[in-house]
Structure formats: C-alpha cells, structure tokens
C-alpha cells in the first residue's frame, strides 16, 4: 500500500517536471518572437493561404475560388523576410504594383512628402528614422494626423511596448505593414549611433 502511494507521487512529480519543461520551452519561443502573443499574427505556414482556406472569405462561396491566391499574386513582387514576405516599398518603386490612389479617379497621384523624422533611442539600439516619403506613397496625411500622431517632431511619446500593444506605429506595423520581428528591427532602427571610436580619437588629439 505504502509503496503504491510513493509510486503515485513519483508519477505526479514527473508530470509536474514535464509541465515545467513545457512552460520553459514555450517561454523560450516567446522570447524568440516578440509578436508570438499576438493572436492576429499568423504563423509562417498559415500566411498567404488561398482565399478558400484563409478563414476570411466564405469557403463555400462560388466567387471565393475565382479569387487569385496571394502566393500567385505575390510571386512577382520583391521579397522580404517577414510579414507576408513582400517588400511593398521596393515593389512599388520597381513598378511591380500600380495602385490606384483614388477609387474613382485612375489618374490621381499621391501627395508624397519627403521628410524624415529621427527619434533618438536611449541605450544601444540605433536611432529610429521615420520616413514620411515611403508612408505617403501609400497613405493620406489624415491616416496618421492627428489621431495617431500629433504632427510635431517630438510631441508624441512612442515606446516599443506601445508599438507591440498595437498603438502608435503598431496601429499598422504587425497588422497591415511589416511586423516587429528580430529580422525587422533594423528597418526602423536604421540610423547608427555616432561612433564612440571617433570620439576617443578626438579626445586623444
Ligand atoms: C504613417 C503615419 C504618418 C503619415 C501618413 C503622415 N505623417 Fe506626418 N508625422 C508622423 C510622425 C510619426 C511624425 C513625428 C512625430 C513626433 O516626432 O512626435 C510626423 C511629423 C509630422 C510633422 C512635424 C514635423 C516637424 O519637424 O515638427 C508634420 C508637419 C507632418 N508630420 C505633416 C504630415 C503631412 C503633411 C502628411 C501627409 C502628406 C503626413 N505628415 C503624413 C507620421 C505620419
Ligand atoms: C515599426 C518600427 C520599429 C520596429 C520594427 C522596431 N522598433 Fe524599436 N522603436 C521604434 C520607435 C518609434 C521607438 C521609440 C523611439 C523614441 O523614443 O521616440 C523604439 C524604441 C525602441 C527601444 C527603446 C526603448 C523603448 O521601448 O522605447 C528599444 C530598446 C527598441 N526599440 C528595440 C527594438 C528591437 C529589439 C526591435 C526588433 C525586435 C525593434 N525595436 C523594432 C520603432 C520600431
Ligand atoms: C497608418 C499606418 C502606419 C503607421 C501608423 C506607421 N506605418 Fe510605417 N509603414 C506603413 C506602410 C503601409 C508601409 C509600407 C508597407 C510595408 O513596408 O510593410 C510602411 C513602411 C515603413 C517603413 C519601411 C520603409 C522602407 O523603405 O522600406 C518604415 C521604416 C516604417 N514604416 C517605420 C514606421 C515607424 C517608425 C512608425 C511610427 C513612428 C510607423 N512606420 C508608423 C504604415 C504605417
């Protein structure tokens, strides 16, 4: 009888150990992909599925099967390393895509504003360069101003935490524009900090 109880608790212990190991392993995958908690972001193999399988369109609708599958539509685009694996900025630049800027007027042209805003980042990450040009190729000023950003340099408080929660840049990035992954940090954090080595040389002189 005693032996049995002992055995049972040993069994429970090993189940507990397995559970801890499992938690630990999921913990690691969370750290590897900062967006893995975001249930709106699909896994790589679930991305760009044909319309009948994407969970958005009516899988039984007659028209659904006639829609062009994204993988086919994207095959000619410039590739990227995250999101839906299309570099939309380069694809537009290279004329792979020719979007309409006005639903009714096929000749309408976007108002492109070429103004970079540098946001200095404390710590070792390179500074963030927010480029108006690439955004206004796709978007209207009113998509961001004033609801998401007050149009004044430094007037907005932006942090990585708020972006990952879907605010500020995260209103779009991670949903309709490239997401935050280890492969995309440098697209935003693109301005290296002034080199320390140079400063040292200057001090020595
Ligand atoms: C995708 C979002 C987005 C779009 C679209 C956008 N902006 Fe901005 N804009 C920003 C951000 C971010 C800043 C920087 C705010 C900060 O530093 O706090 C900014 C800053 C500005 C500033 C302040 C510049 C300064 O030096 O103080 C002006 C003016 C401005 N935008 C005008 C416009 C106009 C005009 C358009 C349309 C042609 C436009 N923006 C489109 C995001 C956007
Ligand atoms: C969509 C653009 C974008 C991407 C992608 C991005 N960041 Fe940021 N990051 C920002 C902005 C904007 C700030 C705020 C800068 C400021 O203080 O104004 C920021 C701030 C930071 C900071 C400073 C502390 C904080 O939370 O504000 C760190 C550290 C950081 N980012 C790390 C990362 C890492 C690591 C990655 C890749 C996993 C990454 N960022 C990807 C835009 C981005
Ligand atoms: C209203 C939507 C929206 C917001 C808000 C927004 N972006 Fe974007 N961003 C886009 C779109 C759309 C693109 C082009 C598609 C893509 O690259 O995924 C883009 C592209 C970019 C690019 C790539 C430019 C290139 O040359 O490839 C950078 C860098 C960037 N965004 C940074 C930021 C930062 C930093 C913020 C916050 C200060 C921000 N974005 C806020 C929609 C947005």
UniProtKB/TrEMBL annotation:
<feature type="domain" description="Cytochrome c7-like">
    <location>
        <begin position="128"/>
        <end position="190"/>
    </location>
</feature>
<protein>
    <submittedName>
        <fullName>Cytochrome c</fullName>
    </submittedName>
</protein>
<feature type="region of interest" description="Disordered">
    <location>
        <begin position="48"/>
        <end position="68"/>
    </location>
</feature>
<dbReference type="InterPro" id="IPR029467">
    <property type="entry name" value="Cyt_c7-like"/>
</dbReference>
<dbReference type="Pfam" id="PF14522">
    <property type="entry name" value="Cytochrome_C7"/>
</dbReference>
<dbReference type="InterPro" id="IPR026352">
    <property type="entry name" value="Nanowire_3heme"/>
</dbReference>
<dbReference type="InterPro" id="IPR036280">
    <property type="entry name" value="Multihaem_cyt_sf"/>
</dbReference>
């Amino acid at each position: 009888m005693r032996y049995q109880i002992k055995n049972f608790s040993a069994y429970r212990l090993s189940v507990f150990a397995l559970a801890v190991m499992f938690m630990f392993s999921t913990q690691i995958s969370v750290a590897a992909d900062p967006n893995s908690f975001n249930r709106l972001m699909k896994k790589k193999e679930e991305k760009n599925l044909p319309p009948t399988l994407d969970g958005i369109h009516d899988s039984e609708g007659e028209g659904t099967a006639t829609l062009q599958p994204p993988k086919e539509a994207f095959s000619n685009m410039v590739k990227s390393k995250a999101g839906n694996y299309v570099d939309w900025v380069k694809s537009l630049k290279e004329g792979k895509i020719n979007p309409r800027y006005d639903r009714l007027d096929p000749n309408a042209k976007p108002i492109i504003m070429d103004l970079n805003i540098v946001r200095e980042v404390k710590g070792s990450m390179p500074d963030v360069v927010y480029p108006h040009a690439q955004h206004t190729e796709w978007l209207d000023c009113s998509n961001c101003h004033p609801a998401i950003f007050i149009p004044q340099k430094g007037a907005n408080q932006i942090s990585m935490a708020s972006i990952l929660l879907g605010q500020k840049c995260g209103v779009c990035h991670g949903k309709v524009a490239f997401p935050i992954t280890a492969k995309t940090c440098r697209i935003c954090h693109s301005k290296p900090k002034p080199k320390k080595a140079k400063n040292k040389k200057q001090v020595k002189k």
